[in-house]
Each structure stands twice: as C-alpha cells, then as structure tokens.
C-alpha cells in the first residue's frame, strides 16, 4: 500500500455512523507459514476486521501484500499497523500505520506521516500523554486528523484517556481478547464509545489456534451489533486456551 498521510487511519477507522470498528492484533506463539498467513489475512477481512495490528515485520509484509490484492473487492483491504518500528520502516513493508510513543511527540508534527512514512498512531497511557501529543502537534485543530491509541489496565483510566482526546481525532482503545463475560465487548460499547472511542484494538485476538477465526467473527459482530451473546466456541476462556500466554 502507498504510504499514507495524516487522516487516512481516521477515514478507515472512524465511521460517520459512530459504529465501532475493530482492529485485530496478530500475535501467534509460533511463526505461521506464508501461504497460511495469506489465507488467514483474507479470512480476517471477511470476518469484518477494519485493520490488522502486529509487531511482526515479516508478517506485516505478507498481510499488507495480501490485503492490497483485495483492492476493488468487497470487503476491501484492511490497512496494517506495525508496532515497534518507525514510520519509514513500517512503510517499507506496506504498513499504513506505525506506533509512536507520547514521549517522542516533540518533532512529530501534523499527526501525519513523519516525512513520507506510514501514518503515526500515538500511544497514550494517561491524560498527560494526550496533552503532550496534542501540544506537540500544534493544538487541537492541528491534531484533528491525528490517531491515538489509548492503553491502560484500569477501565476508569482508559475512559479518562479516551475522553481527553480531541473529539475530531481518531481514538483507538486497547482491550484484551476473550475476557470473562465478553468484557472486551461490553467495555467499549457501554463506556468507551460514549467517551469518544471510535475503534477497538483487540489484543491477542489471533494467537495461532483453531479458535482464532471463530472468535474474531464473534468479536467483530458483537462490537458492531446491539445483540448480546458470549463467545463460547469450545467452552474455554483465554486463560486456558493460550490466548492469554
């Protein structure tokens, strides 16, 4: 995919209808063969994922290439967001987004592509982090197309972080897959979305086991639906089937 300017991730992940979008983390315990990963990439797109997130550079390359091949199809390609590398390195493998830390915000500029690389998504772990990034980007108006990743183990802190991001920007909130009572679905829908969250990153969504695709299909449907129904494909929870390490 071509490198994106500021606002691309917002255009994909922030829906005018305010329906939550779902970003899936690919983090398998073992390396997956390229042909299998290409099949999985296609399945994730068809399950309703809006983007795919990974820290595996070679996996990002394979997924981005497969997704690009879906251009013109429906559903269309999901952008890839690469964690752990700079925007230039992310763009080299076809990723559309790269994760930057709030403390690195000075000199970031524009909420955009850091000089031609992949678009920045700023990791913020506190309200102070949000303030730091917004100020570094030149204020709320200048940050209107910026993308923020809100992370906290405390749901109340996570809500406060989401609430502090300028409403015109993109806020992606991070949750862990396969929580008891579908907590990764209920928290975004009932608490984070009203606070301004537009998209949800489901950590550990894809770990390389047989439940990956059924779980992803369930999570994507529930995030964007008014229905309720727990994921109970095998009767196991993430703590026992490997989704929690």
Termini Cα gap: 32 Å
Radius of gyration: 17 Å
The count of DSSP E runs of length 2 or more, i.e. the number of strands, is: 8
Could you state the order of secondary-structure elements as H and E? Answer: HEHEHEHEEHEHEHEHH
Classify the secondary structure makeup into a structural class.
alpha/beta
- Shape, principal axes of CA atoms: globular
Range of strand content:
15-25%
Q: Low-confidence stretches at least 5 residues in length (pLDDT < 50)?
A: 1-5, 108-114, 228-242
How many helices? The count is: 9
Biggest sheet strand line-up? 1-2-3-4-5-6-7-8
Which tags fit this structure?
245 residues; eight-stranded parallel beta barrel; alpha/beta; disordered N terminus; globular
In short:
The protein has helices at residues 8-13, 34-47, 57-68, 87-92, 127-137, 155-164, 183-195, 212-223, 238-241, and strands at 21-26, 51-54, 80-82, 97-101, 119-124, 147-150, 170-176, 199-206.
